[in-house]
Structures are given as structure tokens and as C-alpha cells.
Amino acid sequence: MGYFKEINLNNYRNFENFFLEFRGGCNVILGQNGSGKTNVLESLSLLEKGRGFRKEKIENLINFNNKNKDFKIFSLFNNQNINYNISAFSLNRNKKKIAVNDNSDLNSIKHFESLFSIIYFLPEMERLFISSPSFRRNFLDRLIFNFNKEYNIIVNKYKKAITERQLLLKDQKYDENWIQNIENNIAEYGSTIYKNREEHINVLNKTLKTINSSKHFSKDFILKIQDNFYESNKQIDENKNIYVSQLYLNRKKDFFQGGCSIGPHRSDIIGLNELNNFNLNQLSTGQQKTVVLLIILAQSEYLINELNLHPIILLDEICSHLDDSNRELLLYLTNQLKAQVFMTGTEKNFFSFLSTKAHYCNIT
Fold first, then answer.
1. CB contact at 8 A, 61 and 13
2. Element (H, E) at 297
3. Structural domains present in the chain
């Protein structure tokens, strides 16, 4: 099992120079509001591809007292008793780089990526099923990225192709071969996204059913893609001509309406009670939090048991709306899973339900 042993933040967010040590199990980061607890979790999320869980601009990660200097994040990651020196740093205040043992070549980065994956919970996820469809799509896509590090490349290529087609349609004097090629790319990338989402929703539903029956967390629900085009053309991953033909037929409509009227960027991810099809957007905030924690638990069980990939779980300001069900879930996450867990909160007594093995870190 891999885990972060320490982190050192230099010129990052509100920290000029800050150091913390961690343990392989449960780590609780305590501090007053505004002390930088979430910034510490974000710094861990920056040690993999992307801009961290806030999707922040690189320039905004630099300490506000020293904007002319780049930020640096140093960490020690242990896997099977081998230590890796991991760093993430900005270049010219507008680009992020990652290095493994001072090496930024592709093979070193890919090897490190294969050792761990980050799952996170942020306070806004308590309202997952009443948020926007794009929020739910991003939530699912993030879970797929946990084990398929190339997935984000497909998603970004898809978005780029959608934008290129829209610009051509606005021009009206486009080359037919050019737009056909773009629409072929849209169908290729779009069908791949549909397929990945459908497959992983099936995995989550299967794992959730196992969890509910064996752990008695008593939330019988299923996740589902809501998308009229996809639901009526389930085989588009095998027959992309259907997708391409529909894009051709929709050109005029898409010209007037803007954007692209079909595709996975139009999907929603909904949750339904298995017994009565009750939509989970009707649940209370605390109940929705339970559902999200169950999804995180199902994702973790799948990564560990099926892929032998032990996640790093980041739970920010996790103590709101903590009823007995949510405490039981958090106890299982911290005590039973072979994963490193980080939680943040303002007071130690909020975490009295945790095992005495929990490691507490204070930010003053």
C-alpha cells in the first residue's frame, strides 16, 4: 500500500514554508477556518495530473505575498518500502510540472501514477444530486480517471472537437471534408466517453449492491445515465455511423442554437431508489452526503479489490451533517480499507468517533 509520509509547501497559497508528517492510515488535519487545511489537501491532489481538485489557475496557487516567485510542493511517498521524492512546482508562474526523484520524464511520471490514485470529497458534493448536470458528469469522469489516466485526454479532445465544429458552423463557408473529419472525431471520442461512463456506472452499481447487502448501510439506489440520444442508440460505440449521421442532420439546428445538441456533454448522471424510482435529488443534504460517501466507498473497494490500486482519500470539512450512518461509513473507510485517508476539521472533538490510531496534525 502506498502512502504519503510528509509534505513541504514553499510559497504555496497561504504558506511561505510549511511542513507536515503523515501516517499510512487516518490523518486528521485540524485548524481554524482560513488556516489552510483545504490548501494542504489540495497540495496532495496537485501531485497527480491536472490542476488539483479546485481546478485553480496556476498563478492563484502562488503565495499572495510573493507573486514573483514560483510555488514548490515536496513530498515523500512510500510504496512497498521504497521511498519516492515527489515534487510539483510552477514554471514561470503559469505552468505546473511534476518530478519523481528529480526526474520529469514520461516513464517516471507514469510509473508513479500507477502506484496510487486520489479520491476526494469536497463540501459542495453534499448537494451532488441538486447541482448542475456538468457537476455530476465531472464527478463520474473523475472516478474513471482514478484508474484510467488516459481518459482525461479523450475528454479534452472531445471538447476541442466540439468547439472546432461550432466555429466552422458559424463561418458557414466551411470545407465539407474538414467538418466531416471533425464529426468523425466527435463520434469517436464521444462514443468512447459514453462507453466508459456506462461501464463504470455498472461497476459502481454492482459494488454498491454488494456493500449494501454485506455492510447493511441501508441505501438501495442505482446510478444511471440520462441521455435521450444515448438511450435510443445504445450501440453507437459499435456503430459510430449513427452518431456521425445525426451530427450531419443536426448541423442547421446547431448553427442556430449554438454548441452541439447531442453527445456525452449533454448527459446527466442521476440516482434513483431501486424500489420506487424515487430521485435522489429529493433527499436531504445529510442523506445525499451518505450517498456520496457510499459511492466513494464503492469506488475504493473496486480499486483495491479488483485493480490492486490503493487510493489516497481526501475528505475536506467532512464533519457537517454527520449522523450515525455517516459516522459508520467514515469508520469503515478509515479502519477497514487499506487506504490512506485525510480529513480536515476545526475541532478535535468532532472526530471523537474515530479510532485512537488516527494521527492528528495541527495547523496554527
1. yes
2. helix 285-307
3. 1-116+310-364 (3.40.50.300), 126-308 (1.20.1050.90)
Report helix, strand or coil for 302: helix
- Global pTM reads 0.93
Question: Do 264 and 227 contact (CB within 8 A), yes or no?
Answer: yes
- 69-82 burial, b for 16+ CB within 10 Å, e for fewer? ebbebbbbbbeeee
Run of H or E residues at 318: none
User: What pLDDT is attached to residue 91?
Assistant: 92
The pLDDT-based confidence of 218 (bands split at 50, 70, 90) is: low
Closest by CA position to 342, among listed 355, 333, 352, 350: 333
Write out the three cell numbers for 265. 456533454
Nearest to 251 by CA among 237, 262, 267: 262
Q: Which of 83, 55, 58, 73 has the alpha carbon at shortest distance from 15? A: 73
Can you tell me which residue has the cell 451533517? Answer: 321
Q: Is the per-residue pLDDT at 59 higher than 70?
A: yes
Handedness of CA 197, 322, 306, 87 (dihedral sign): positive
Q: Residue 79: beta bridge partners? A: 82
Rounded to whole angstroms, the Cα distance separating 204 from 210 reads 10
Considering the chain, what percentage of its residues have pLDDT values greater than 70? 98
Report the candidate in 184, 202, 208 with the shortest Cα–Cα distance to residue 144: 202
pLDDT digits (tens, 9 = 90+) for 266-321: 999 999 988 788 899 999 988 899 999 999 999 999 999 999 999 999 999 999 88
Nearby residues of 191 by Cβ (< 8 Å), 6 or more positions away? 236, 237, 240, 243
Q: What are 164's three cell numbers? A: 472546432
Q: Which amino acid is at 347?
A: E
In this prediction, residues 3-11 reach a mean pLDDT of 97
Give the list of residues 6+ apart from residue 176 with CB closer than 8 angstroms, or none: none
